[in-house]
């Protein structure tokens, strides 16, 4: 519950996060005790010196007192759906009765059934028959989605991990 110790840790961590490329002004520092639940969900009376945290970032300012406030202030990453499709393959499966199913995470763009994709570096072009995530068919997959997609007339031997699917 020591303010001096908190400031010492805050200074050390700020210096470290600056070295790895983050702006310390955009990182909230919250003194907590997981053991007693201090400043986790509600402001603690055991830390009378602590007035709260405030951060500045290009999207605006945010402030609060507790860890849950700091977690709620985290902004979700942007989903670049307007950019060209880029989907690095993590694996390629042959599924009986379905065919060749490349699997990967959509980084940019959108993939949906009917999309014509080209795989780099092999320059192989084909059409997407279906897109699935967790065994459920999708109308479209957006950045951040880990998907499997069925491709027409392509052998498993023609594709491999590391290839990148892009829209043609």
Q: Which strand order does the major sheet show?
A: 3-4-8-6-5-9
- What is the first-to-last residue Cα distance? 59 Å
Counted by DSSP, the helix tally is 2
Return the structural class: alpha+beta
- The run of helices and strands is HEEHEEEEEEE
| Count of DSSP strands | 9
State the name of the first-level CATH class of the largest domain: Mainly Beta
Please summarize the sheet with the most strands: 6 strands, antiparallel, barrel
Give a description of the structure:
- The chain is α+β, with helices and mostly antiparallel strands and 168 residues long.
- It has 2 domains: 3-72, no CATH class; 87-167, Elongation Factor Tu (Ef-tu), domain 3 (Beta Barrel).
- Helix content is 14%, strand content 32%.
- It contains 2 helices and 9 strands.
- The strands form 2 sheets. It has a 6-stranded antiparallel β-barrel. Strands 1-2 form a two-stranded antiparallel ribbon.
- The chain is elongated and about 70 Å long.
- The mean pLDDT is 93.
Short description:
With 168 residues, the protein is α+β, with helices and mostly antiparallel strands. Helix content is 14%, strand content 32%.
Provide keyphrases for this structure:
single chain; 168 residues; alpha+beta; Elongation Factor Tu (Ef-tu), domain 3; 2 domains; 9 strands; 14% helix
List the helices and strands and how they pair.
Layout: H1 3-19, E1 53-57, E2 60-64, H2 67-72, E3 87-95, E4 99-105, E5 116-120, E6 124-133, E7 136-137, E8 146-151, E9 164-167
Antiparallel strand pairs: 1-2, 3-4, 3-9, 4-8, 5-6, 5-9, 6-7, 6-8
